[in-house]
Give the backbone structure.
Amino acid sequence: MAEISAHDCHREVDCIYDDEQYSVRDNGAVLRHPRTGKRLRSTDIQWTFGNPNSHNGYMYISQARIHRIVATAFHGEPPTPEHVVDHIDTNRRNNRPENLRWLTRLENALLNPITVKRIEFICGSIEAFLENPSALRHSTLERNFEWMRTVSLQEAQACRERMHLWAKSDKPAISGGSIGEWIFKPIVSPNPVLETHNLVVAITPGAVQRKWRVPTEFPCCPQKAEDEPIVAYASKLMAHAIFSHNNFSTHTVSEWAVIDDGQAIYVICESKDIKPWSFAKVTFEDGLYVHESNGTFFERAGAEKAFCLAQGLEWKGGDTIDDYC
């Protein structure tokens, strides 16, 4: 197991949490700033992933939970005081922003397929859990924190994929209730479903990628079940919003259109890459949002031409430099 550096990050933001000022990185590390006019504390102005609590598995800096600080910095204040932070891969020491989201306690139990699988194993069924939620607190499985640790981006992706595959399997529990180090290792054999459809698991839960090799985060992708998933996705798009983000680039929304009677979305994006314009398609297949790359372009006109032709419309802008590159 390689030690994760607090300095191995790509983005840093500031936030106020519980009347304290923090700087927060996208690897889950935080730095607490000194209080104005007060004595410097031993944990001030130091980057840290926090210290694990042996009773609940969470990471802390003093009395503050790291995951709530990171969620506040990257996802904003909780919608209500009753909202809690869901660790999507259930690793309470993985406080990378893409692994965190604000949910109500009931949503936390019912919307995460990994958590649902654990609840069914412990309580017998979701219905039994709803009748007696306290059953979770008496489970030794819920107190098994030995496998949890701070992880790299690659380990986080491997963990999420393994846990989601387990959640979809017929296995009632992971062997002996202990996950072990294997959970952080990439899966050697490809997922047959994803392989068949040439898909790559995205960082965002419920999202996959086609013709898009690098695992990517899609901030506009809905996280809840929707009756009209494509319409719900389109409602979250707006000019200059981040459409996709990974270790190499960030693409912001420029233009979009819902097509095929609400079955797909075409999106033109802008970035700071050598080819700054891109064209993507979003569909909803087998319960997953599929993000398909349809090319990158030197000029906006090149992306707009592809955008226009894909909709079956006539392009009247003539040739572009991308027609020759």
